[in-house]
Amino acid sequence: MVFAAVAAALVQGLTGFGSGIVLMVFLPHILPISQSAGVSTLTMFIGNALLVWRYRKALDFKRLIVPFIVYATVATWSVHLGTVLPVNTLKALLGGLLIVLALYFTFGRNAGSVRLPVVVTVIFMVVSGFFNGLFGIGGPLMALYFLTLASSKEEYLASIQTFFFMDTIYVTTLRFVTNVLSVADVKFVAVGMVGAVIGTMVASRVVDHLNIMRVKQCVYVFIALAGIFYLLTGLQVI
């Protein structure tokens, strides 16, 4: 758990998201899917808080309000659906979507430098909230959304880390209230937090040497890798 959390925090610190994707490779082997999503989200809480504090001066909080309301509303509905929906089919669909988006933002002319249309933005928020409630992996589409608004890596990381900090507080509270998580799960979280803090500190030193274009490249590559992984696991190839 410690090593998985270190890897998750390294990815999160470098790309702004992805800790849930890494942890959800490991956690479903020891916990049910809904509990795994809850433990994954809460494991990054301290590491996430450190990043929020570090980039606080670059934050434009107004950018977070509407996306968070939409995202949280959908997550509220989907948080308990892991036992009733076709999980593998949904993973495959998510994987395919992430691959297409990664290719578009990598090779599309000006794709990552112009603001997304309102309709696309809303779709990103809804899809992200749905998969966050279900699997704890709502980050990729929100990363793309905040990247298109940011003019610097600090601005991007401030937005997405604060967004996920708010999400962790809300969704974790919801999971405890609805008994998806219990006090018994805290032992997994506590162990993981140690690794998450270590990984966050290492990632912070690395990201100091990256500019916004390098961060974008890291984001697109990781989204593509995540898409391939979810497509293959959804199709039960791996």
Automatic annotation (TrEMBL):
InterPro entries: TM_pro_TauE-like, TSUP
Keyword line: Cell membrane, Membrane, Transmembrane, Transmembrane helix, Transport
Keyword Transmembrane: yes
TM stretches of this protein: 30-52, 64-83, 89-107, 119-147, 188-207, 219-237
Alphabetical list of Pfam families matching this protein: TauE
Membrane topology term: Multi-pass membrane protein
Protein name per its UniProtKB record: Probable membrane transporter protein
Predominant location category: membrane
